[in-house]
Design brief:
The structure holds two protein chains of two kinds. By secondary structure, chain A is an alpha+beta fold. Chain A has one domain: 2-Layer Sandwich (Alpha-Beta Plaits), CATH 3.30.70.20. Chain A has six helices and ten strands. Among the domains of chain B are: 249 residues, Rossmann fold, CATH 3.40.50.740; 241 residues, Dimethylsulfoxide Reductase, domain 2 (3-Layer(aba) Sandwich), CATH 3.40.228. Chain B has 28 helices and 27 strands. In chain B, the strands form seven sheets. In chain B, strands 6-5-17-16-15-7 form a six-stranded mixed beta sheet, with helices on one face. In chain B, strands 22-26-23-25-24-27 form a six-stranded mixed barrel. In chain B, helix 11 packs antiparallel against helix 14 and helix 11 packs parallel to helix 16. Chain B is globular. The chains are: A alpha+beta, B alpha/beta.
Chain lengths: 205, 820
């Protein structure tokens, strides 16, 4: 079996600019509403107001998310036509000839990675820029990140280099799908399940 | 202020409830977005798309260098992939590395959207002439010959009837980093070069970005200096940023966002951000965020200064040797007692009010104990790097705001040293490129940049002392013709858009407006003649670097594709108009645009011997100075070392905390009622300031307008990719939202007596209570009821000016918000 690939995300560097989202969109020509990579803003906390003065006790952070090419890819499990499948390198892809656009994969994926393309009537998703990697290049989102917050590679190497955090709020527990993802959390990141905050930009993700 | 309480209160942010559904579906709204997909891919829907289409479909991909040349302070090279005469993909820089001084200059979300801007249905295609009422949107297509003839005739007629001073070049920064196709600074634009061949034009001074701080440095330091570059924060033990947000305003992955992130990552310098918003910079690099009410930075400084003086924490030695006016022993002659900054702080000045931390707390909103703690930390940490963005100064009291922050730096003795600062905004290292293309304006008269609407309305009433006219005692004539090249300050970026439009609609006042732009902007709607410009990627140009810490670089922007439709370069337009005015040779000096680029490169090589040849640079795209300085910029080291030998260009030669010139202006200038000029950097309560907000029931919220990721000002506006990624929203605190029954993403109206906008609310803990922020630059889009559904903040702002430099006080605005 070939090495399994994954993404690394340094949340401490992310300013929510979405260059990753647009680099992906420009490369793959996805329509409005179809975003193989999206960025959530997550935050919470309270303000204390005393007389004329105020004090914040608040937090906020960003989370960029594409397909995590999970070990237990539920999108593959639920696909009724076997269009959604996992290659030897772990990359999850859609076979256009088989996809009927039923959107079960979209419904089942806790990361909303498969995206329905109304123009083609089929699902579409991140393939870790296979063509770029075959040409010796980084995936478009990784090469574009102005903050150098993204990386990719064999997941074993990423975990060795960056640790093994694969879930923070508002993501699901990594045990659900075993994502090939490593996160360096922002100082304000909350652990999965212990979350007090909320996604601030729900319409954008 | 509506959310005050005598007792501590606490408001939770709306909870998401964390149901199983949201646990599993972190992106619950994604399905809703999909419904928009059908038919909204603008690239497939271009009118006349045949003209965009490739004639050579089987051609392979070719990669050519261009750049994003807009006004964010950064400048990013772009690699454009071309197939069949069409840009099919835009790639980021792949040269350089991740080290400061040689960093890869990765474009932000906007630069990467260049293709959509290029192929937008908003692109202008042919020259057009207004046929109905100005602004009514009724046009006829005309030939280039007719356009050139009519513009040349208008220029000549207006010069003959009114003189050159009646012709104005409006501020515009839509294409700012080019050399030949360059819309700012006005004096080195092709329009200026054209007008200079026929006697010149009315100048303006300062700009919409920095008007008040320019008016502050002029009197405090004797001129613009800039602060230590942001990479020098590595030499400091504390970094304090007043309203500076490089992680959003200078968002390039090779510019100041990268420099700030990397410097902080490597040095771990403790960082405090003082800002009404929990900005991206606060989120990204701050150890502490200090929110305050907009327009109260000078009060915060005074409160901290009071602590420093009371506890003897200030650098008296530096103040004695390098500054005028800190205490009573260092005042100019003939000034009454009690006029020093210490007297102001201690209640021994004319107002008799002691500027205690409690006094500052009630104005700023920052608790007094926080002010005391900050004062001690800033005074006792050496060195401390203090820098201000341009938000604090874009206020009715903006000059004093800026000067107060300069004063804090002087009091802590951090000027002219590594790891210190002047308290201005960051400077940076830059290549000394030559510019033989620049020419001289024979007209000396100059107006404040924000006063052009006054000059249209009542030009000859404007004098040096009532309107800040420079170079002459008064204006002789009103503005009768406006050139508006690659700018949107004719409407959208000026104050009070509705009032501005009313002024422009009367074509007996300003008789001719020529707009040159690539697209139908809000300002283009008000043209008499509208010329379709080529984008920078459609012409060859030398592209100057952006602010990037200690890195110097330059870019040769190739002509990646031909201009589409009938678009032409601004150089060709001006050459043709010059020909009709009989000055073509003066304008072109016999050179084509490429010959100018080669000429400028050759001239620049005198000071930069390593600069590559034209051919080499065209191949490599971006060239970096191979020997960057260790630190980008450290000003005033010589003044620090010997102030007698290296005096500042102020009347005293020193830093003027008490400005002799402002003292005199306070006596001689005619100001609107209630406005004040002060010789000291005092906090001033002004019209529509935070004090007034707390007294007014109708408009109790302070409205600011932050720079937003969707756009650089208004450039890159109206593009579906960017509107999807960063929709126009108004930020408001949950306390204010709850009082009004407003939830996150609810549609709301923001309004005052000048106008009304409609847009979604972003209910967020990231902004101070009592403050809302409408990201500036959205395109004004009035509906039938006159409500601006585009959500431009300038539908709400006013024409009122700051007292000293007559600057745009666009963050001094009061509003109310209600659910739509």
């Amino acid at each position: 079996m070939a090495v399994t690939l994954g993404f690394y995300f340094d949340q401490t560097l992310c300013n929510g600019c979405k260059a990753c989202q647009i680099a992906c969109k420009d490369k793959h020509d996805t329509a409005i509403g179809v975003n193989w990579r999206r960025v959530a803003e997550y935050g919470g906390g309270t303000w204390q107001i005393t007389g004329d003065t105020f004090s914040p006790n608040i937090f906020a952070n960003y989370l960029t998310m594409a397909c995590n090419h999970c070990d237990d890819a539920v999108c593959v499990d639920v696909c009724p036509t076997t269009a959604m499948h996992q290659r030897e390198d772990g990359v999850v892809v859609v076979d256009d000839d088989l996809c009927v656009g039923c959107r079960y994969c979209e419904w089942s994926c806790p990361y909303s990675a498969p995206q329905y393309d109304a123009e083609t009537g089929r699902m579409s998703k991140c393939d870790l820029c296979t063509d770029y990697r075959e040409a010796g290049l980084d995936p478009a989102c990784v090469a574009a990140c102005p903050s150098r917050a993204l990386d990719w590679g064999p997941i074993d190497e990423l975990r060795e280099q960056y640790g093994d955090v694969a879930g923070i709020a508002p993501l699901p527990d990594p045990s659900v799908t075993r994502p090939n993802l490593v996160i360096k959390p922002h100082h304000s990141a909350e652990p999965v399940g212990a979350a007090t905050g909320a996604i601030t930009n729900p319409r954008e993700v | 202020m509506t959310a005050t309480s005598d007792h501590p209160t606490s408001t939770d942010v709306p909870s998401n409830g964390l149901s199983r559904r949201s646990f599993l579906k972190w992106s619950a709204a994604a399905g809703g977005g999909v419904a928009l997909a059908s038919g909204t891919n603008q690239l497939g829907l271009l009118p006349g798309s045949g003209l965009w289409a490739s004639e050579d479909e089987d051609g392979g991909l070719e990669t050519r260098w261009s750049a994003c040349v807009v006004n964010c302070g950064s400048c990013c090279p772009l690699r454009m992939q071309v197939a069949g005469g069409r840009v099919v993909r835009v790639l980021p820089d792949d040269t350089g590395d991740d080290e400061l001084g040689s960093q890869q200059i990765r474009a932000c979300v906007r630069g990467l959207s260049y293709r959509q801007r290029m192929y937008s249905p908003d692109r202008l295609k042919v020259p057009m002439k207004r046929v109905g009422k100005r602004g009514a949107g009724e046009w006829e297509e005309i030939s280039w010959e007719q356009a050139y003839d009519e513009i040349a005739e208008a220029v000549q007629r207006i010069i003959d009837e009114y003189g050159n001073e009646a012709i104005y070049l409006n501020y515009g920064t839509g294409t700012i980093r080019g050399t030949i196709a360059k819309s700012w600074p006005p004096a080195i634009t092709p329009i200026a070069r054209l007008m200079n061949t026929v006697g010149g034009y009315l100048n303006h001074y300062a700009d919409y970005s920095t008007a008040q701080i320019q008016g502050a440095v002029a009197y405090h330091y004797g001129g613009w200096i800039g602060a230590n570059s942001l990479d020098d924060a590595k030499s400091a033990n504390l970094q304090v940023l007043f309203g500076n947000n490089p992680l959003e305003t200078r968002m390039s992955g090779g510019g100041e966002a990268f420099v700030t992130q990397r410097t902080r990552e490597q040095s771990k310098v403790r960082t405090i951000v003082i800002d009404p918003r929990y900005s991206e910079t606060a989120l990204g690099v701050a150890d502490e965020w200090v929110p305050l009410r907009p327009g109260t930075d000078a009060a915060l400084v005074a409160g901290m200064a009071h602590v420093m003086v009371s506890e003897d924490l200030h650098d008296q030695e530096f103040l004695d040797s390098h500054c005028q006016g800190f205490d009573e022993d260092h005042m100019p002659e003939d000034v009454p007692e009690g006029s020093s900054y210490v007297a102001y702080l201690m209640g021994e000045g004319p107002d008799g009010v002691e500027k205690t931390p409690e006094w500052a707390a009630s104005i700023t909103g920052v608790p007094a104990d926080t002010i005391v703690r900050l004062a001690r930390e800033i005074a006792t940490t050496k060195p401390t790097y203090i820098n201000q963005g341009w938000g604090p100064q874009r206020h009715a009291n903006g000059e004093n705001q800026a000067r107060a922050i300069f004063t804090l730096v002087a009091m802590t003795g951090n000027i002219g040293i590594r790891g210190g600062s002047t308290g201005e905004r960051e400077g940076s290292y830059g290549l000394p490129m030559a510019n033989p293309y620049a020419s001289e304006n024979p007209v000396e008269t100059s107006i404040p940049v924000f006063a052009w609407t006054d000059a249209v309305e009542k030009g000859p009433e404007m004098t040096a002392t009532n309107a800040g006219v420079q170079g002459a005692d008064r204006l002789e004539v009103p503005i009768k013709m406006i050139w508006n090249y690659a700018g949107n300050a004719l409407t959208n970026q000026h104050g009070d858009i509705n009032r501005t439009i009313e002024l422009l609609e009367d074509d007996s006042k300003c008789e001719m407006i020529v707009v040159i732009d690539t697209r139908m902007t809000v300002s283009a709607r008000y043209a008499d003649i509208l010329l379709p410009d080529a984008m920078n990627a459609e012409q060859l140009d030398l592209v100057a670097q952006g602010s990037a810490g200690n890195m110097g670089y330059t870019i040769l922007g190739d002509q990646v594709v031909e201009p589409p439709f009938e678009c032409k370069t601004v150089y060709e337009m001006c050459s043709e108009i010059a020909k009709r005015l009989g000055t073509e040779e003066d304008f072109t000096e016999g050179r084509t645009q490429e010959e100018w680029v080669r000429h400028i490169l050759d001239a620049s090589r005198e000071d930069i011997p390593d600069l590559p040849s034209f051919e080499e640079l065209k191949e490599m795209g971006v060239w970096r100075d191979p020997n960057p300085p260790e630190v980008g910029y450290v000003p005033l080291e010589d003044f620090r070392a010997d102030p007698e030998e290296h005096p500042l260009p102020t009347p005293s030669g020193k830093i003027e905390i008490f400005s002799t010139e402002l003292w005199e202006m306070a006596e001689t200038w005619e100001l609107p009622e209630g406005d004040r000029i002060t010789a000291l950097p005092e906090h001033l309560d002004t019209w529509e300031g935070p004090a007034e907000a707390r007294e007014r029931d109708d408009h109790p919220l302070q409205c600011i307008g932050h720079h937003y990721k969707q756009r650089t000002h208004s450039t890159y506006g109206n593009l579906p990719w960017l509107e999807e990624a960063h929709p126009q929203i108004v930020w408001m605190n949950p306390v204010d939202a709850e009082e009004r029954g407003i939830g996150n993403d609810d549609t709301v109206e923001v309004f005052n007596e000048r106008g009304r906008i409609r847009l979604p609310a972003r209910v967020t803990v990231r902004i101070a209570p009592g403050v809302v922020s409408v990201p500036q630059g959205a395109w004004f889009t009035p509906n039938e009821q006159g409500v601006d559904v585009g959500g431009s903040v300038n539908t709400l702002t006013s024409w009122r000016q700051s007292p000293i430099h007559k600057g745009n006080a666009q963050h001094t605005t009061l509003v109310q918000i209600a659910r739509a």
